[in-house]
Amino acid sequence: MPGARIAALGHHQPDRVLTNDDLATMVETDDAWIRQRTGIATRRIADEESVADLAAAAAGKALAASGLTPREIGLVTVATCSAIDRCPSIAAQVAGRLGIPAAVAYDLNNGCAGFCTALATADHAIRAGAARHALVVGAEKMSDVTDWTDRSTCVLLGDGAGAAVVSAAEDDSIGPVVWGSDPTRRDAVRLVDDWHPHFAQEGQTVFRWATTELPALATEACRRAGVTPDGLGAIVTHQANLRIIDSVVRQLALPEGVVVARDVVDSGNTSAASIPLALAKLVERGEVSPGAPVLLFSFGGGLSWAGQVVRCP
What we know:
It is a single chain. The protein is of the alpha/beta class and 313 residues long. The protein has helices at 20-24, 31-38, 51-66, 90-98, 114-127, 151-154, 203-212, 214-225, 242-252, 264-267, 274-284, and strands spanning 3-12, 16-19, 42-45, 75-79, 104-108, 133-141, 159-169, 178-181, 189-192, 198-201, 234-237, 259-260, 293-300, 304-311. The protein has a five-stranded mixed beta sheet, with helices on both faces. Strands 8-14-13-11-12 form a five-stranded mixed beta sheet, with helices on both faces. α3 crosses α4 (90-98). The longest helix has 16 residues, at 51-66. The model has no long low-confidence stretch (mean pLDDT 94).
């Protein structure tokens, strides 16, 4: 069976920037309060753009960067939890907009863990010979499911999309996935399903889980890929909270040379989009050396998690 690799990346964010000072005019909060608890300074908000618009923009950039034609894409999957569209799927809409004629297209909802889960399913499909090239997207319009009167959650969320083209390869550039869930904490991160679903979470439960359980899971993902944490070129965890990111980095005892994604500061929590968005930016800026091992690890609703070590172009 072939291996698989990330051949190209792309990202897209809406133009409108919502600052902490802007939020202070909407709810009882201020810049210092938000930064101290989350590390977030700004987030992007989509006004007219839909989840499909965001996904197609990021996917189009990744496809262009790969040098492939739309006809060569055999699988399109979009990780999202905020899409209003149920059928046709966002993936089918992306395929249609990009002129991809006959790929299997499906959405995957695993909350904030969605992109790494979707990446693993695409990796497995390629290794099984079901496709040679896949388009994997994480796209969210979290502003559609934000309760703008709840200062504990509205300060967290943002909109955006990231995408990767995954292709068959002789080498194994995508490591084995570490994934799972803890259904006893299934309500820790959720969308409350009423006439207008909105994001809700048990913040302390999520924080404690991430800062106590995630480091061991991340280390296991490294072990399965045949690397040690101190041999990583970069780490991109779910961009939920800067305090969580920094705690995980400390516990993994990463050396100073390891690049740490902190896109949460500028983009907020974009759920399933956060990892591909942050990863694409690091690669675009040249902060990750080609072929260097990069740990991706996501967690969120369910309480679910997924992570793997990849090597980027």
